[in-house]
User: Which sequence fits this backbone?
């Protein structure tokens, strides 16, 4: 039975290596030596027992008196050293934190084995590793004030961590803004986030889930690290460990309320109050939050669980100004609008000025009722009242986690953690009804109608195997799914707006169409009508890694390999019922030099003459990146006061791909331009994935991404310091974070393609005015093309 079990263990390890998340681990470790007055003590028994679960591991010191425990779950431990002919030593309350590596030496005294020396609460310093980090334990997380209850954001209290986003949007629903953190001077949103060792970042490098503080044991903020286990980061790592159950029952319960009367008016509302232009009464808003957790044994000393839940519902106010025409203008009467509206059907050449055109005004500056389009008539009911509007925003969020720990034997332990999150985040709906904000889906014409619906599932499974007293293996699997859907409420038929059946039948997904009418609308949404566009996105990630640690003499060697697939599935119908833009091109006097002020745009809308219009046709994409890595590290204990960390890491990131090659992978400057102009040799064209011999991936993947690491952990005073941790690390950031020239992390470098045209093909002054960004200078055509054949940046880490 033992032989078959050992074969299964090694088969699992080999399988994980073959399928080889980042090998970043949340486990800690403990090493040291056992000596007596005359020298080292080989063969001494060293037992490490988890004080919460009674799970125990036992090793024997080697011929140099060295022992080591690797892949140790964070927690409080008792260490007992015993050897025949010597008094036993028991050290209680040793806390091993997330990826914390401690050194603890013992000197045995001659005596009976039954005689014991007990030490309590003496946790040694971390002297086995040169990496520099800070730890936020559960007590710190529970006691520090945090408006958003975001454990990652609390890292800003530690040295080297800077938040560059909006500090008010760091709630559990704010994955994008709260990930705008810079570690150790690295690029913002260039970091890695792990939960029980599994990376939980998406392809945009955001933490997809922000677990409840009730579910978090601790967060280790690793700003400067020299471990070969760390990779694919341009800054640092937020290493989070979830709480585990124990033999004793534990739990928590939390409720929070922020009364409306204790909150201040917004800036503009306060100014309006001070000037006497608005109410000084505080809006009737609310904030309710609840959280709780429970953990304990399912089977004593064998099976444990921990569960948590957290949620909130908030009501906030958004103040805006709705710009809309008056009732007279909506009926086509512009006699008092200070402008002259022209009939587009009267457009004709100007006999006095060849090349120019003239038009005839509408009689009385009023558009006849018979000329108002059916669509404009049908949409009359949707025009909001102009003026200030205070809309309510009701945000909802729910987060839950569950974790199981199973001790199969002294040599085999499994943990599995699941995290769930769901939120509803609306935009301001400023088109009020009877002075009140309408419910989501009640007014499809409001550009703020609909919501951002987010749902996350994350799984982390860890297996720790210790086949013998000097070897430990670890196999980890992880998965994340992040649905980030921006959608309106389904059910609106654009046919009810007077559009022809021929048009409606071409609409791929029915919704309220998009209408941009001059500058009417609100500043927040930027257009007049049409619920938010449809954008269905799911970010996903698969993780698998394995590692083996071995104690050889004074060496603790670690070897590991990892594979990660990071992707996004996207179907973006957008404004699928059409986007229509109205300006003064058809209703002002000069069609070649139109007046685009709002009344002219409104007149064009009433007549049914958009200047442009589009219907997007979208196809689903499934884009992904494959990432591979392998590493080796040796922690050599040179003497009791000095540990040398030597490591090397190899990484290969394949570049962004798409399952069906539905993407461009670059710009070929030598390719013949698809459309040629007589007398010009136009060159350059997009490179389509897998076509004409082009690669199927973006970027320029390097096969030489070797990252050496070296560090020194000095325990004895050196030059006046109690501890000194010099080191050097080479880190390769992911391919999506800029280039070697220091551009912003999420930028794509762009190149300008220029071709000189013969005189007869150069644009006219009118064309230059219409397209100033495309035609400049002496007839040169410029096109801005994303530069997507870049190599990722390299970062070098040194101690401050």
Assistant:
């Amino acid at each position: 039975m033992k032989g078959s079990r050992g074969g299964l263990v090694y088969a699992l390890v080999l399988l994980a290596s073959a399928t080889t998340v980042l090998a970043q681990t949340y486990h800690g470790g403990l090493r040291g030596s056992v000596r007596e007055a005359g020298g080292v003590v080989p063969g001494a028994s060293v037992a490490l027992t988890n004080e919460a679960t009674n799970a125990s591991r036992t090793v024997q010191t080697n011929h140099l008196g060295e022992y080591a425990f690797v892949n140790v779950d964070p927690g409080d431990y008792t260490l007992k050293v015993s050897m025949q002919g010597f008094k036993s030593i028991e050290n209680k309350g040793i806390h091993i934190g997330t990826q914390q590596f401690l050194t603890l030496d013992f000197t045995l005294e001659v005596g009976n084995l039954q005689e014991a020396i007990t030490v309590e609460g003496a946790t040694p310093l971390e002297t086995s590793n040169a990496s520099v980090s800070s730890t936020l334990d559960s007590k710190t997380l529970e006691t520090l004030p945090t408006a958003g209850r975001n454990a990652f954001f609390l890292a800003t209290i530690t040295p080297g961590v800077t938040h560059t986003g909006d500090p008010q949007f760091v709630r559990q629903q704010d994955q994008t803004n709260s990930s705008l953190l810079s570690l150790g001077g690295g690029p913002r949103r260039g970091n890695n986030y792990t939960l029980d060792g599994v990376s939980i970042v998406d392809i945009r490098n955001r933490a997809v889930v922000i677990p409840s503080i009730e579910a978090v044991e601790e967060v280790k903020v690793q700003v400067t690290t020299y471990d070969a286990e760390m990779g694919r980061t341009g800054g640092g790592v937020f290493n989070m460990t979830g709480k585990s159950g124990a033999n004793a029952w534990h739990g928590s319960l939390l409720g929070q309320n922020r009364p409306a009367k204790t909150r201040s008016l917004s800036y503009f509302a306060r100014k309006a109050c001070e000037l006497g232009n608005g109410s000084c009464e505080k809006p009737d808003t609310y904030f309710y939050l609840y959280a709780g957790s429970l953990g304990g044994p399912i089977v004593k000393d064998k099976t444990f669980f921990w569960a948590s839940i957290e949620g909130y519902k908030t009501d906030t106010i958004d103040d805006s100004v709705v710009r809309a025409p008056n009732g007279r203008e909506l009926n086509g009467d512009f006699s008092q609008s200070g402008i002259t509206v022209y009939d587009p059907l009267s457009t004709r050449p100007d006999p006095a000025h060849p090349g120019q055109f003239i038009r005839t005004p509408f009689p009385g500056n009023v558009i006849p009722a018979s000329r108002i389009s059916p669509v404009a008539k049908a949409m009359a009911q949707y025009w909001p009242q102009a003026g200030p509007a205070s809309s309510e925003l009701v945000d909802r969020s729910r987060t839950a986690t569950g974790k199981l720990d199973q001790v199969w034997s002294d040599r085999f332990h499994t943990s599995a953690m699941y995290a769930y999150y769901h939120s509803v985040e609306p935009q301001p709906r400023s088109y009020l009804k009877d002075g009140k904000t309408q419910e989501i889906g009640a007014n499809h014409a409001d550009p703020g109608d609909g919501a951002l619906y987010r749902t996350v599932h994350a799984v982390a499974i860890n297996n720790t195997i210790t086949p013998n007293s000097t070897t430990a293996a670890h196999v980890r699997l992880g998965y994340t799914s992040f649905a980030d859907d921006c959608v309106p409420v389904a059910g609106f038929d654009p046919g009810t707006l007077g559009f022809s059946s021929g048009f409606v039948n071409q609409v791929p997904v029915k919704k309220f169409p998009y209408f941009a009418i001059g500058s009417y609308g609100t500043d927040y949404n930027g257009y007049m009508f049409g619920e938010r566009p449809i954008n269905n996105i799911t970010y996903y990630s698969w993780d698998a890694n394995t590692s083996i640690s071995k104690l050889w003499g004074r060496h603790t060697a670690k070897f590991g390999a990892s594979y990660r697939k990071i992707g996004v599935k996207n179907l973006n119908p957008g404004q699928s019922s059409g986007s229509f833009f109205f300006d003064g091109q058809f209703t002002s006097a000069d069609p070649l030099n139109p007046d685009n002020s709002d009344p002219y745009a409104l007149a064009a809308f009433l007549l049914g003459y958009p200047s442009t219009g589009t219907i997007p046709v979208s196809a689903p994409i499934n884009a992904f990146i494959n990432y591979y890595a392998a590493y080796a590290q040796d922690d050599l204990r040179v003497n009791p006061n000095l540990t040398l960390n030597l490591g090397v890491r190899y990484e290969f990131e394949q570049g962004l791909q798409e399952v069906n090659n539905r993407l461009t992978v670059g710009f070929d400057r030598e390719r013949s331009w698809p459309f040629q102009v007589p007398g010009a040799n136009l060159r350059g064209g997009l490179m389509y994935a897998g076509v004409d011999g082009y690669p199927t991936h973006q970027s320029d993947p390097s096969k030489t991404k070797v990252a050496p690491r070296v560090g020194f952990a000095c325990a004895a005073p050196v030059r006046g310091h109690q501890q000194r941790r010099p080191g050097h690390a080479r880190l390769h950031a992911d391919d999506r974070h800029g280039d070697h020239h220091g551009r912003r992390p999420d930028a794509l470098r762009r190149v300008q393609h220029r071709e000189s045209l013969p005189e007869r093909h150069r644009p006219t002054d009118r064309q230059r005015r219409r397209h100033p960004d495309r035609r400049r200078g002496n007839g040169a055509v410029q096109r801005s093309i994303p530069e997507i054949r870049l190599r990722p940046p390299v970062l070098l880490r040194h101690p401050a």
Notes: The two ends are 54 Å apart (CA to CA). The longest strand covers residues 387-409.
